Amino acid sequence: MKSKGEIEAAVCKVISLFEQEYMGRGPKDIRTYLLGDLLVIRMQGVLTAAEQHLVKTLPVEKGRDLLKQVRTQLIETARPILEKLILDITGCPAKSFHHDISTTTGEEVILFSLDGEPECREVKR
């Protein structure tokens, strides 16, 4: 059985690899927070150079909306892969999945609502 920190670290590792392989660029920083039955993944620096250029050259709303639509479609297409990765690590299937990205800060957030709380061992200090 894994500790809460080991689950969070394992999620960071697989999501970072997923971002590199599937999206073409890994995050500069990634943090995962297991909060009961919620798994929150927060990534910094995920926008590719092409995405940054797109956002800067188009009118603000058009560039933002286009980037969010493309990212949402890519993430939704990969949803079964992501859910399997999370199930393998936590032992809990995902009930729901939420995603958003900021075109201003380059921060991306993925949230999984799990079907129960993952079993974690206590860490003795």
β-strand amount: 15-25%
Number of helices: 4
Taken in chain order, the helices and strands follow as HEEHHHEE
Helix content: 40-55%
Shape: elongated
Q: Give, in spatial order, the strands making up the sheet with the most strands.
A: 1-2-4-3
Average pLDDT, to the nearest integer?
Answer: 93
Instruction: Please give the alpha-carbon distance between the first and last residues.
Output: 17 Å
**SSE-based structural type:** alpha+beta
Q: Major β-sheet, in short?
A: 4 strands, antiparallel
Number of β-strand runs: 4
The figure for the number of domains is 1
| Radius of gyration over C-alpha positions, nearest whole angstrom | 15 Å
Produce the secondary structure layout.
Blueprint: H1 4-23, E1 29-35, E2 38-44, H2 49-57, H3 60-77, H4 79-90, E3 94-101, E4 108-114
Antiparallel strand pairs: 1-2, 2-4, 3-4
